[in-house]
Amino acid sequence: MVKRVALVLSLVILSAWAATGATITVPPGTIFHCRLSQTLSTASDSQGQLFAATLAEPLVVNGNQVVPAGSTIHGRIASLNRPGRIKGVGKMLLVPETLAFPNGQTFTIDAVLLHAYGAPGARIANPEGVLRGPDARLRDLKEVGIGIGGGGLLGTMIGGLHGTLVGGVIGGAAGLVDSLRRRGPDLTLPRGTELKFELNRQLVVSRPGVAEYNLSSR
């Protein structure tokens, strides 16, 4: 009886050891450097749409190439908001879901967007990784200023100083109305935008896939 129990325990220990040796764990906080595979925009895309980003450089853990360059992160647009006419800016949340090796081997991934480079006016708005687009306030001020200047010049030509003041007010109001009838600038991520994703939870990768790519890279 004692021998049988000892044998069972040995088998359990050996199985656990073998399982541990068959995988490599990528710890939380690891950064994936990617490039967006297609253009995304609040003007043309919608919530729920899929996206893909390709790893620009291999991920190395303890001297092992765990994730090869060319692997693809697949995800979806979890939320999307178009900029408003009076207030609000374009917003987009990209949520990674899977990591696929070039040979088709796929793993579930939990990560958050840290940075986006190459997207005009885009910045990370909060710890959840929501991207915020360019603000329309500067554009509105420019258009109102142009309206004031143009109206003031026309007023001067017609009615002197009094005409300048009246023309400036009318021109500024016209510029403001024209600005408010249009939406603010959309958030656009061009193809090739550099994205940095940070792992929220550990990623466990099988050693056979790692060994395959370590050999093929030599």
Beta-strand proportion: 25-35%
Distance between the termini: 52 Å
Mind describing the biggest β-sheet? 9 strands, antiparallel
Number of domains: 2
Q: Report the structural category.
A: alpha+beta
Radius of gyration: 28 Å
| N-to-C SSE string, H for helix and E for strand | HEEEEEEEEEEEEHEEEH
Shape: elongated
Q: According to CATH, what is the class of the largest domain?
A: Mainly Beta
CATH superfamily of the largest domain: Type IV secretion system, VirB10/TraB/TrbI
User: Averaging pLDDT over every residue, what do you get?
Assistant: 76
CATH-assigned fold name of the largest domain:
Lipocalin
The helix tally amounts to 3
Low-confidence stretches: 5-20, 138-145, 147-155, 171-181, 211-218
Which CATH architecture of the largest domain? Beta Barrel
Percent of residues in helical segments? 25-40%
